[in-house]
Amino acid sequence: MPAPIAAFDLGRVPYREALELQQRAVLARASGERGDSIYFVEHEPVLTVGRSGRAGSLIASLPELRARGVEVVPVERGGDVTYHGPGQVVAYPIVALEGLPSGRDLHRYLRDLEEVIIRALATYGIRAARRPPYTGVWVGERKVAAIGVAVRRWIAFHGFALNVDPDLSHFDWIHPCGIRHLGVTSLRSLLGASPGREDVLARLRAAFAEVWARPVVETLSPETLHA
């Protein structure tokens, strides 16, 4: 039987602390100290800028963002600027690529993450899809999930942010992922009501298990930011 993937729901976590957690988890996975895992979190409003970030992708000024308490954090994932905030489900898979059907193929890994979200949303009756050449998941011309990943020693980290019920006006601070002509949406907007977080997580765990053909186990044992 394939090795299970542990799934942790850490709740609301400051972005920089979650980033440090990922970095420690990558080292632990690369050394064999821990197995594959998925961390589900939520953040206070923050903007992260990936390796392809451009100054023009920020609409709000830095003084305006500082006045709102919104930090802009450069990160090593791919992609441009992304918003994280309350009402999103953010998933950080810390997984060895060689143990997945995609193997050491980062582009296939990105397609796998898209497929996980597409399958999870299909269980709500939402017809989500890819929109090449862009990475992410879309419903029509509106993005419902942003994806950006990094790989170190063939261990993947970072992941995706699924818009369940965020304040969509916060996306007015940026051109999401540097895309200027397309919009954003959320499960609340699409369904007329926001599904519960636990329900969304259960559907995502099931979709991960289907796409990667491995059990994804909700893990309730203590898993702290300082472990």
Which segments are poorly predicted (pLDDT under 50) over 5 or more consecutive residues? Answer: none
| Class inferred from helices and paired strands | alpha/beta
What's the name of the CATH homologous superfamily?
Bira Bifunctional Protein, Domain 2
- Annotation, overall tally of beta strands: 12
- The CATH architecture is 2-Layer Sandwich
How are the SSEs placed, and which strands pair?
Blueprint: E1 5-12, H1 15-31, E2 37-42, E3 46-49, H2 62-67, E4 71-74, E5 81-84, E6 88-96, H3 106-122, E7 129-131, E8 134-139, E9 142-152, E10 155-163, E11 183-184, H4 187-191, H5 197-212, E12 216-218
Helix pairs in contact: 3-5
How would you characterize this protein structure?
By secondary structure, this protein is α/β, with parallel strands linked by helices. It is built from five helices and twelve strands. It has a single domain (5-215), classed as BirA Bifunctional Protein, domain 2 (2-Layer Sandwich), CATH 3.30.930.10. It has helices at residues 15-31, 62-67, 106-122, 187-191, 197-212; strands at 5-12, 37-42, 46-49, 71-74, 81-84, 88-96, 129-131, 134-139, 142-152, 155-163, 183-184, 216-218. The strands form two sheets. Strands 1, 2, 6, 7, 8, 9, 10, 11 and 12 form a nine-stranded mixed sheet that branches. Strands 4-3-5 form a three-stranded mixed sheet. The longest helix has 17 residues, at 15-31.
